[in-house]
What we know:
2 copies of one chain form a homodimer. The first copy, chain A, has 382 residues and is of the alpha/beta class. Chain A has 2 domains: 24-244, Alanine racemase (TIM Barrel, Alpha-Beta Barrel); 258-377, D-serine dehydratase-like domain (Lyase, Ornithine Decarboxylase, Chain A, domain 1). Helix content of chain A is 31%, strand content 24%. Chain A contains 12 helices and 18 strands. Chain A has helices at residues 23-39, 54-60, 73-81, 98-107, 117-130, 154-164, 187-210, 223-228, 248-253, 258-261, 286-289, 354-358, and strands at residues 9-10, 18-22, 43-44, 68-70, 86-89, 109-114, 134-139, 169-175, 217-220, 237-238, 264-274, 279-282, 305-309, 318-323, 328-332, 346-351, 363-368, 371-377. In chain A, strands 1, 2, 11, 12, 13, 14, 15, 16, 17 and 18 form a 10-stranded mixed β-sheet that branches. In chain A, strands 3-10-9-8-7-6-5-4 form an 8-stranded parallel β-sheet. In chain A, helix 3 (73-81) packs parallel to helix 4. The radius of gyration of chain A is 22 Å and the shape is elongated. Chain A starts with 8 loop residues before the first strand and ends in a 5-residue tail after the last strand. Mean pLDDT of chain A is 96; it is low at 1-5. At the A-B interface, helix 5 and strand 11 of A face helix 5 and strand 11 of B.
Amino acid sequence: MIVPESPPLRIQGLRTPAALVDLRRLEANATRMARKASRLGVALRPHVKTHKCVEIGLIQSGGSPGPITVSTLAEARGFAHAGFRDITYAVPLPLPFLPDAAELGRRIRLNLLLDDEATLGSLEAFAEAQRMRFRAFLKVDCGYHRAGVDPQSDGALALARRLQASPGVEFLGILTHAGQSYACRSPEGARAVAEQERAVMDLFARQLRESGVRVESVSVGSTPTCCAAEGWAGVTEIRPGNYVFFDAFQAAIGSCEAEDALAFSVLATVIGHYPGRNELLLNAGALALSKDPGPVHVDPDCGFGGLYTAEGLPLPHLRLSSLSQEHGLIRGLAPIDYASLPVGSCLRVVPTHSCLAAACFDRYWVLVDGAVSEEWRRIGGW
Amino acid sequence: MIVPESPPLRIQGLRTPAALVDLRRLEANATRMARKASRLGVALRPHVKTHKCVEIGLIQSGGSPGPITVSTLAEARGFAHAGFRDITYAVPLPLPFLPDAAELGRRIRLNLLLDDEATLGSLEAFAEAQRMRFRAFLKVDCGYHRAGVDPQSDGALALARRLQASPGVEFLGILTHAGQSYACRSPEGARAVAEQERAVMDLFARQLRESGVRVESVSVGSTPTCCAAEGWAGVTEIRPGNYVFFDAFQAAIGSCEAEDALAFSVLATVIGHYPGRNELLLNAGALALSKDPGPVHVDPDCGFGGLYTAEGLPLPHLRLSSLSQEHGLIRGLAPIDYASLPVGSCLRVVPTHSCLAAACFDRYWVLVDGAVSEEWRRIGGW
């Protein structure tokens, strides 16, 4: 909705903690990734789990609903309601959700993923009973070792063949997520992981095709690898998510520039001065920022996010050193200038992990030229 | 509300992840702390930030609204709406919330806390302009070094004197939170912190009284210290919160017995089997459990919570080793018996930190004798 206040609401007028989105930076992030995908010949299917916000999904899709990726059926339903018609639910389907997936799958192209025979059997039995057909990717493990089949195992080929021949499930192709890219320390490291992700999937797709399995989509994606990759030969689509916001973690490993790309921040209020220990206190704790430890592999003393003035200027001499439920404790790396940060004034925190911090809120305040222009809702739950 | 299904809903029928409360354990935890407070001659003002649920607050208060502690004004408003009339907001008041605090303070006994002159000045100016009076504690630092005045500083006595003489603020007494108790490894350690917390406050109260400052309330509290303390001489009230749920952290440091007291858990579904690496995957990640690292100071390899069958039997050979946004990866410490945990079946996770995990949900499913008896809402936001 458009915020009714006129003149525009100033961010100092917001209740804190508040989730802020810098619209120009967000648009630039979205455009940069869309252009890269286009230039390198892959489709972009952004993962909306980072923001779970229809307005942002539309910006990522170029203005009208395009293909997206989600992490919950609640997101899928919300985006479907807003006109998105091609949605990949990129978590192995929990079987109790089968009826929900079927209901949604009758209305839109809902693409599931699976990596085991038992799930395929359940999908087939349900599809037969309901006289319908599911759509599914085979989930592949390209080295992250979370979900997915080992592409060089006998079971992987057997499962792909069963999918290909399934009466109840349309086989869409293969899909992976190189989450191991989050252990990188630099764009060079992420580029190597991106190449591994691409090569594993390209090889597996070729092997499947040689075995007579038709593989249409080859889907990859994580923000570090999508930012670092220099080519996607053999890949048909990418699914980055965090890139639209970025965060202190992505800046630390070089996925983005800290000063230009960080589109999400949390506004908080100074609630205490402790000059005796060169510290101050914010009213933003673990329930506004998450307890994600951040890029400790790059900087063990990184703290819980980058600190900025309410206007967005960096405060490099302050460190958000600890979080409890509703408190954030800031330590000065140099003597704190308390006069410039009076009790009651506001700061911005760029969190360690924007996907988790954004989940602490039910709405975003959209900033254009430092003023609040709109309020956007976020889809929660499962 | 009472769940309408008849016969009672089985937990296997819930959508996952789902927040479960074991009513008998919760009642026993509430009763145990209430009896201890009564026996040791202190008032109990439970901190409801752990659950933010009116029904649970009523159980803690013995059936009808009693004095409580909150961490947000949203909680204060929600509990006030349900009839609670004596509420301590135990975070230093963010000054932009002054009008909200004033509005609520006209309807109920809203007890604020402060630890600096600037906030007191703002309260006084607001009170004068609005012809009203606030109620406030002086927040004391008993060694946690988060918020509060150093009780042995000159500033502490000066601020207490100013509060005592304030026309706009009624001085209620002194209040502290021994959060350093979370660094303990045993009940003996927590008992020593409890004695430090008590002694610091008792001494400061005496010093204030000797200086002519009337100190009515001396308020302390954290779950580890309240569970471990053997006496509260000089203290008038305690404010534990987590004790009504407990969690894997509290069990690890000995605040409670793991098998009898853990009243909160998250129900999740098995979504993947990975026998090649002796792992399995749950659909509960950081957005259902939080990324709280847990009692790593007691067990560096503790993982992200204790694992139990859907019926509540411990699964000690499984470790919840990592969390991403919607995935929880379980590692077997012995070969996993996959047949007993088929894909689609449910497990329970007792999280590392129940205050943060509960905040991932908007409702609790209440279990009595293994069946779902009620659905209770949770107050979110600020």
